[in-house]
Amino acid sequence: MFGGGGYDAGASQFAGGGFMPTQADQGTSPAPKKTSSDQTLRALTIKQIIDGTQNPDESQWTIDGQELSNVTLVGKLTSVQEQSACVVYQLNDGTGSMEIKNWIDTDSDYDAAKKAELRLGVYVRVHGHLRVFDGQKSIVAFNMRPITDFNEVTYHALQSIFQHLHLTKGTRTGPMGGSNLAARPAGAMPQSNGMGGGPAGASYPAATVKTDGNRPPIQQDILAVFNTSNAQASDVGTSTDQVVGQLAGKHSERDVRQAVSFLADDGAIYSTIDDVHFKSCEY
Amino acid sequence: MDIAPRVNFELLQRYIERRVRLVGQLENLQGNVLKLKTSDNGTVNVLIKPGAGFDSPFIEVEGIVESPNTIRELDHTNFGSSFDMSLYNEVCRLSNNEFQALFS
């Protein structure tokens, strides 16, 4: 979702424009060490950028605890000023105003055609880098294009909210948790798990299983057996026969076997030494 | 004045004499009054600037709220003929409530 889609979009921008991202930073600060977060593309409102904080030791701009690299904004051009080698725009998205610098090749027909489209009052999507110089923020754009389907305005606002939530609260837990799991990029883990989903170091499947109160009683009873500390401590886990024995009188053997098989298929438990011994995925 | 919250009809009254952005569906245009249906199915009168072109079914108006159902236009953008108003209504709701900190 966020990491995957965002990164791809960024990559395609690079490919399309033939732009070298490090160029914009030359001379302003020493190149920071490259980590995976340097590759991200954040969808933001201008207010979020203005409200961001500067990391004192790394001189990097940080929003929602994550350093900014590439950003994408959607807004309306409220000022257009042509200079010799670049065009300076003011972009307003209703949350604030931001200076956008777009370097252009004056000999390129392509750049001239692009420039002609970017008139005053036009809604645009911008991809670029944030640059902070003397406390003044501006975006050095590597792509700007007019918006033609205005649902993109809606989409951008929702994507900004989604990414903010993703970075501040983590993935949603509960019945939907499992499906979000795969979408979570390792590099995008928040510093604090705002959902309170278990102790530090707990894996995400744990949070998913723990908060899943929607399982039928028999499955909850079986998971309780697998989650006892004895069962957790054992390397081989618990056999289906043991579970049947423990739940005798409460659930029929047939129902228990069916439910154990369901839980294994569902990923709540996993088989250990053979296909009748299981451990809970919760720890 | 850089901030102009996105509003629907219900939110309009919060921003009297303030600048807002409102997307609506064109109902009719008589003289200098443009009637727009908002994303939450209210009707707003927009006092338009002379000579402005309104040539699409969906229009975004940026302007000053004069009364709970009147906006004085400062600028507008034609938003085309295909725009999801119910989803946009959610943006209005979220950006003025839970996630206001991101927007205004």
Automatic annotation (TrEMBL), chain A:
Q: Where is this region: Disordered?
A: 17-38
Annotated Gene Ontology cellular components are: chromosome, telomeric region; DNA replication factor A complex; site of double-strand break
Q: What is its main location?
A: nucleus
The OB domain covers: 71-147
Q: What is this protein called?
A: Replication protein A 32 kDa subunit
For this protein, the record's Gene3D superfamilies field holds:
Nucleic acid-binding proteins (2.40.50.140), Winged helix-like DNA-binding domain superfamily/Winged helix DNA-binding domain (1.10.10.10)
Q: Which family does the record claim for this protein?
A: Belongs to the replication factor A protein 2 family.
- Keyword annotations: DNA damage, DNA repair, DNA replication, DNA-binding, Nucleus
Kindly give the InterPro entries that the UniProt entry links to this protein: NA-bd_OB-fold (IPR012340), NA-bd_OB_tRNA (IPR004365), RFA2-like (IPR040260), Rfa2/RPA32 (IPR014646), RPA_C (IPR014892), WH-like_DNA-bd_sf (IPR036388), WH_DNA-bd_sf (IPR036390)
Which terms in the Gene Ontology molecular function aspect does this entry carry?
Answer: single-stranded DNA binding
From what superkingdom does this record's organism come? Answer: Eukaryota
GO terms under biological process: DNA replication; double-strand break repair via homologous recombination; nucleotide-excision repair
Replication protein A C-terminal domain mapped to chain residues: 164-275
TrEMBL record, chain B:
Gene Ontology terms: cellular component? nuclear lumen
Enumerate the Gene3D superfamilies for this protein.
Nucleic acid-binding proteins
Which CDD domains does the protein's record reference?
RPA3
Coiled coil regions in record: none
Q: What is this protein called?
A: Replication factor A protein 3
MF-aspect GO terms: DNA binding
Taxonomy of the source species: Eukaryota, Viridiplantae, Chlorophyta, core chlorophytes, Trebouxiophyceae
**Entry superkingdom:** Eukaryota
**What family is reported?**
Belongs to the replication factor A protein 3 family.
Key word Transmembrane helix present: no
Name the principal localization, coarsely classed: nucleus
Q: Which UniProt keywords apply?
A: Nucleus
